[in-house]
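# nightly structure sweep
# worker-07 picked up a monomer target from the shared queue
# config: single-sequence mode, recycle default, output format = structure tokens
# input follows
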Amino acid sequence: MLYADIFIKLAEERIHYAVTGGIALVLHGVVRFTADLDLIVDLAEDNLKRFVKVMGDLGYRPKQPVPADDLCSPEARLRWANEKHMVVFSFYHPGKPINLVDVFITEQLSFPIVEKELVWFEAGNVKIPVVSIAHLKQLKQIAGRPQDIADIEILKELEGEKNKP
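# output follows
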């Protein structure tokens, strides 16, 4: 499974995170092609430091020309958001060209609120924390791109299907 190594290591290190974006859509039952892994990571400094270490240990490198540890700095994240209009910090793997991991640099939604409504999926022996459909719709609304609006409509249809007797 794509990204299994990340999910396993994040669980081992007790990193607080949730899968969002296209992979969350797929796990919730939407048929859609996606290759990148979008994550909401609790932005607490200790959690971020452990997250960055896991990514480095697994061979992932920042796509941006900055040290990965800069992700742990609230000042750097704020500067990136304000000056560069950056939304995510991206990691790539030199040996796995398809693997791209995007981490939100600001709280689009409060992580403690997201964490309370996580939906857990299991793939093989790997448990994956995924944002709820309600939070996924909120995040898609915030992003507001045409694909996100289309995804919201698909999620609404999916909810209707799940609520049928």
